[in-house]
Amino acid sequence: MMIVLYVGIFFFIIGLAFFLFPPKGENLVYGYRTERAQVSAESWVYAQRVARNYFLLVGGILTVIGFWLKLSGHTNFFLIELLGIPWVIAPMIARIEQKLDRYNRSLRGDENEHIDD
Q1: Where are the transmembrane segments (predicted)?
Q2: Domain with 56 in it
Q3: DSSP 111
Q4: Which of 45, 100, 111, 116 sits CB 3.0–4.6 Å from 36 for a disulfide?
Q5: What pTM was computed for the model?
Q6: Confidence of residue 48 (pLDDT cuts 50, 70, 90)
């Protein structure tokens, strides 16, 4: 099994779909849907752009690593690959959410609200 390769291709396809067919507005079916992404129309558009970039980047990196593992014959590490994937996906989602939080604060104008406390 080549979990890294398949997940990489899947993520890259998601990023490519977001690039070629960006979600036009908030919907229940398609797009990067989190609470922060749905704060406003501007946040929604920004979330789709950031998610697209991260899905393309992480998908591309995982695909290259997966092809390298396959070509080098390191295909017997199913459990390691399976346990390693969350260590790639979780930071990606955390980084997207971090950027969205910063963006939403800048829209509200409270990026320096701690100064007046």
Answers
A1: 6-23, 54-71, 77-96
A2: 3-10+33-107
A3: T
A4: 100
A5: 0.84
A6: very high
